[in-house]
Amino acid sequence: MTTTLTRTSLTPRVAAYATGLRHEAISPEVLDRSKQLFLDFLGVALGGVAFGHASAEFRAAVRSLMDGATGRCTVVGERDGYPAHFAALLNAAYAHSMDFDDTHRDAVTHPGTPLFAGLLAAGEPRGVSGRDFLTAAVVGYEINGQLGRAHAQRVHRRGFHPTATTGIFAVTAAAGRLMGLDQGVIEHALGLDLSFAAGTAQFSESGGSNKPVQVGMAAHNALYCLALAAAGVAGTGRPLEGTNGYFNAYAEPGSTVESIDLDPSQAGEVLTVAVKPYPACRYTHASIDGVSALVQREALTPDDILSIELALPPDGFNIVGSQPEAKRRPATIVDAQFSVYFAAAVAAAGPAYTWDSYRRLTDPTIEALMDKTTVRPGDLTGMATDVKITSRRGAWTMAVPFPKGEPEVPISWPEVEAKFRSLATGLIGAARADEVLAAVQRLETVGDIGEVTRLLRAE
Q: Is the pTM of this model over 0.90?
């Protein structure tokens, strides 16, 4: 059964929303949240340069492809400018390399990373204002959220990674708006996207660097498609809703495309996006929260614990809980990021789950706790987890319906600022980090986005 639409075709509505949303229609709450998410993106991108998986290799590969070329676009932590498409690739790959970027639980995507990387590369050479940059970001979050909500886990179930495959469409629409392209050109670019939308979820089974690379390529390829369309190259029609379009080719049957309601007078999806407190797959976060809370409340030591039992939503279980033999002995950081056994063990051992936790892959205490952990699929939805810890002194349970960072359990501005500083200071210093923070907080008054990007370059 193919996906069909009962109203005006979806692709023209996406392009119309991209060009039609007025800044005046965006609420102060949505603008404030967009600035928080932009700051979070900058933090995880800067942190990715310093700590991220394979970041040095990404940089070396792009430099070899550039073959001496230069450009006007900023890559965080670099002194020289890059061509736009390569800047988008590197900034997105860096920002996704720690798995610490924002998440949309219903879309099951990390929308901000490809979006902000693409917008910076599209906007910086044009000297766009912070106001226009924020408006385009809201466009991208709205399109990513609504498309992603319509397919939900169905893209993952077919083996694709929607942060990349759905992300390219959102980046293209938002960046097209920022570039001043008209609706027809953006429609053609969306049509070309269908030939570039790529990203597999195989990393959750067998590691590799595919995950940040394919997210980087989503931003990179969006700019390619916009350049092609702007030059007059025609894209296929109905790339989202067609017989062989995105929803039919990339998602299992059942997507609720009829629910997509892109009204240019409204924008609210950004308010449903979560900021991550831990650098790991989002499906592990409620387990970290629950195990940590019980261990701290009952003052448990690792030796006290006899067993940890976790129930996850079925889709989350398939990603971070199945194949217990392998996931109880993660061999790499990527393996550990997608192991709820490792997440629960670190949470139980304390004191906190941070990037430094990945130094404990072969820690005997962590291995012993992983061996005591069992995971099953439960009658749960979203990112929820049910936790049970049995110890020598008793047994306790905790239901965690929403992990920290979701709209129901939000992260505050001071917490976002603290996360940003912890990731950015090592690369750009405390004083420069404060300047970035101040610029983002007043972004709607910034006359040229270059006022922000110059602060992200190496001195």
A: yes
- Tell me how far apart the alpha carbons of residues 197 and 150 are, in angstroms, rounded to a whole number: 17
Residue with tokens 């004191």: 351
312-365 tens-digit pLDDT: 999 999 999 999 999 999 999 989 999 999 999 999 999 999 999 999 999 999
pLDDT tens figures, 237-286:
999 999 999 999 999 999 999 999 999 999 999 999 999 999 999 999 99
* Crossing angle (nearest 10°) for helices 210-230 and 183-193: 140
Exposure string over 41-66, b if 16+ CB within 10 A, otherwise e = bbbbbbbbbbbbbbbeebbeebeeee
- Strand boundaries in 196-321, DSSP class E: 273-274, 305-312
Give the end-to-end CA distance of the chain in Å, rounded to a whole number. 56
Q: What is the pLDDT of residues 278-323, one digit of tens each?
A: 999 999 999 999 999 999 999 999 999 999 999 999 999 999 999 9
Go through 157-188 and write b for each residue having 16 or more CB atoms within 10 A of its CB, e for each that does not.
ebebbbbbbbbbbbbbbbbbbbbebebebbbb
What DSSP state is assigned to residue 257? G
- Per-residue burial over 319-339, b if 16 or more Cβ lie within 10 Å, else e, is bbbbebeebbbbeebbbbbbb
Q: What is the rounded CA–CA span in Å between residue 223 and residue 228?
A: 9
Helix (H) or strand (E) holding 399: strand 394-400
Which residue carries 């017989």 as its tokens?
A: 243
Asked if 18 and 174 touch (Cβ cutoff 8 Å), the reply is yes
| DSSP conformational letter for 277 | S
Q: Quick check: 136 and 168 in contact, CB under 8 A?
A: no
Give 411's Cβ-side CA count (13 Å radius).
Answer: 25
> What's the Cα-to-Cα distance from 326 to each of 85, 140, 252, 365, rounded to whole Å?
37, 37, 27, 17
Q: Cα separation of 145 and 108, whole Å?
A: 9
What is the spatial distance between Cα 173 and Cα 182, in angstroms, rounded to a whole number?
Answer: 10
**Tokens 């070396």 sit at which residue?**
60
Cis peptide before 162 (omega within 30 of 0): no
